[in-house]
Here is the input.
Amino acid sequence: MTLAHGTDRLESARLVLRRVAPDDLPFFTRLHALPEVAQHLYPGGRPRSPEETAAWLQYTLASYEQLALGYLAVVRKEDGALIGRCGLMDLVVESAAPEHGVRRGWFGREQAPAGVALTFGVAPVWWRVNC
Here is the structure.
């Protein structure tokens, strides 16, 4: 997930989603070092070092240009506080089983047929994307 070129943010009543910026590094260094956060972000749940977080941030910044994909910073509109991140990176569908809502015939298409919803899980949170 990222923003289209020329778009600098997405806004809801309470939140602003924007591209991650170099100045966000101190926040993400603290966030990625928390065991209760790392357990849901990384295989093995190991907190990340400041150097690993800096590498993640550089990869994220590069991904905007190279992949047109990347995490977005989540900012609370009320006070401008950076509160987290969201988005998709390197999304891979690992199952084509009908019970998982994906059919083999849909692979390679730019868009799923109308009314189809893809459901996938990340950590303990489930997301639903309506196509």
The domain at 10-86 is CATH 3.40.630.30 (Aminopeptidase). The chain has two domains: 10-86, 98-130. The first strand starts at residue 10 and ends at 11. Residues 47 and 91 are 22 Å apart (CA to CA).
